[in-house]
Each structure stands twice: as structure tokens, then as C-alpha cells.
Write a structure and sequence with these properties.
- This protein is about 45% helix and about 10% strand.
- It has helices at about 1-15, 25-40, 55-60, 65-75, 90-95, 105-110, 125-135, 145-150, 165-175, 190-195; strands spanning about 50-55, 75-85, 115-120, 160.
- The chain has ten helices and four strands; from the N terminus they run ααβααβααβααβαα.
- The structure holds inosine-5'-diphosphate and magnesium ion.
């Protein structure tokens, strides 16, 4: 029945000249098992990953859920998540480019003052897109609708961290996560959120 319906739709699209635009979700055509095989995460062209950290102020202000929701809502895939108190060792490596800044000591103190929630999100251009979603470093200049633009007003308490480049993301993910903590899983809606 499903196959007859798919065939009918294909014929209709063919006759209306929309051959190139027509696709059908693999999960519906072949069933989930087959879809998993045909489109397993390891085959996907867009496996870009980024590190997002909800900083101590975000955790203390109970913003974790809202921040996770924004990334889920946008269509990105969560592949790693944990809550921890970050060590000075990890933090000094994470912020190694800022050691000469006058605010560096207070940045470390603030980041270690309470737990953080650290995540890895995956998807098409997730690094660039998440920087836009997070907003300007200084919340006073961040657009409304961004995380920083909606939830903060001072640069010293800007709620989230997001990797700023491919090299940075790879370095930071390796620093914060062990390989086994990242899950390789298939999102059932991936053919609905991204062209294969
Ligand atoms: P980013 O988080 O937008 O990538 P960076 O320049 O990498 O911005 O700075 C890292 C973090 O250092 C910022 O998110 C913020 O927490 C802190 N920071 C940056 N500039 C200042 C400042 O002028 N005063 C206090 N903290 C700052
Ligand atoms: Mg940065």
C-alpha cells in the first residue's frame, strides 16, 4: 500500500515536471532498519561538531533547558552531554589564547565557581550557526533572539561558550570529552532537516 502510494506520487511529480525536487524520506520507504543502514551517521557528509558550554551563571539561573531547547529546535543533534566542575587544568587549556588578558584570572575564578553543563552538537555548519545563535561576546552588543542577547547583559557573565572555528571545536571537544562519551546515533528526522 505504501509502495503504491509512493509510486503514484512519483508519477504525479514526473508529469508535473518536478522530477528533480522530489524525494521521499528513506525511513518511510525502507523502514527504520534499512534507513539506518543507508544513512548511518558515519556516512553523512555533515558531521561537523561543536562544543557548547552552559557556564556557571547559566546553570545557576536554571537556563540549561532553554539553551538545549534552542539547539534541538534548530535541528541539531546532541551527541554528548555532561555536568561537571571544570578543573583549572582543563580551563587553562581551553582559554590558552586569553592568558595575557587582564580579565583572565577572574574568568577562571568564575568558570570554576559552580558546575557547568558541557555538550557536543552535530550538524550542517553547526559551528558557524551556533556562534550566531549564541550572539556577540559582549551581551550589550548581542542581538535580541540570541542566547546572550536574551539572557545576559555583561561580558563577564555571558551564559554560554561556543567554539569559534573547526580547529577550535576539534581541540575543545577532545579536551572536554573522551571519545567514548560521544554517541554515534541516527536521528530519524535527518532527511527532513538536511539534504542528503
Ligand atoms: P567568546 O566566548 O565569544 O568566544 P572570547 O573572546 O573567546 O569570546 O572570550 C572568552 C570569554 O572570556 C568570554 O565568553 C567571556 O566570558 C570572557 N571575556 C571576554 N572578554 C571579557 C572582558 O572584557 N571582561 C570579562 N570577561 C571577558
Ligand atoms: Mg572564544
Amino acid at each position: 500500500m505504501l509502495q503504491r502510494c509512493v509510486f503514484k506520487t512519483m508519477v504525479q511529480r514526473f508529469h508535473s515536471g518536478r522530477r528533480d525536487t522530489w524525494r521521499f524520506p528513506a525511513a518511510l520507504l525502507y523502514g527504520h532498519g534499512a534507513a539506518t543502514h543507508r544513512h548511518s551517521s558515519t556516512d553523512l557528509p555533515d558531521k561537523e561538531q561543536t562544543l557548547i558550554v552552559v557556564k556557571p551563571d547559566g546553570v545557576q539561573r536554571r537556563l540549561v533547558g532553554q539553551i538545549v531547547q534552542r539547539f534541538e529546535q534548530r535541528g541539531f543533534k546532541l551527541v554528548g552531554l555532561k555536568m561537571l566542575r571544570v578543573s583549572e587544568d582543563v580551563l587553562s587549556q581551553h582559554y590558552c589564547q586569553l592568558t595575557s588578558k587582564p580579565f583572565y584570572p577572574s574568568l577562571l575564578y568564575y568558570m570554576m565557581s559552580a558546575p557547568v553543563v558541557v555538550m557536543v552538537w552535530e550538524g550542517h555548519k553547526v559551528i558557524q550557526t551556533s556562534r550566531v545563535m549564541v550572539g556577540h561576546t559582549n551581551p550589550a552588543e548581542a542581538q535580541a533572539g540570541t542566547v546572550r542577547g536574551d539572557f545576559s547583559f555583561h561580558v563577564s557573565r555571558n551564559v554560554v561558550h561556543a567554539s569559534d572555528s573547526l580547529e577550535g571545536a576539534q581541540r575543545e571537544i577532545q579536551l572536554w570529552f573522551q571519545g567514548k562519551e560521544l554517541l554515534n546515533w541516527d536521528c530519524w528526522d535527518q532527511t527532513m532537516t538536511c539534504e542528503e
